[in-house]
Write a structure and sequence with these properties.
mainly alpha; 434 Repressor (Amino-terminal Domain); 4 helices; globular
């Protein structure tokens, strides 16, 4: 019996890396701002990295990377941070002007 294997060509993924120096600076600024807001709120709530990780269902190591301000986070992760800490990171999306 002659069986043919159907091989699909690899799909080119969309690059998620910043391409210009200014993009990198902007991204780092946002990332560090999120980290600062998280750290401040964690202190206010008396939360450790481990406690926040448990609330977000992730690892303490991931929280550590986020708090260093160098982790590229998805919108889903930002939403989890907002919910776990009771803060608003992405503002203005629900405002009607």
């Amino acid at each position: 019996m002659n069986m043919t294997t159907n091989r699909m060509s690899p799909v080119t993924s969309i690059s998620t890396t910043c391409e210009t120096e200014q993009d990198i600076k902007n991204w780092l600024q946002y990332s560090q701002g999120i980290a600062a807001a998280m750290s401040k709120r964690m202190t206010e709530l008396g939360l450790t990295q481990q406690m926040l990780a448990e609330k977000m269902n992730c690892t303490q190591q991931y929280i550590s990377k986020v708090l260093k301000g160098k982790k590229n986070m998805s919108l889903e992760t930002i939403c989890k941070i907002e919910n776990a800490l009771g803060i608003e990171i992405i503002k203005g999306l629900n405002t009607k002007e």
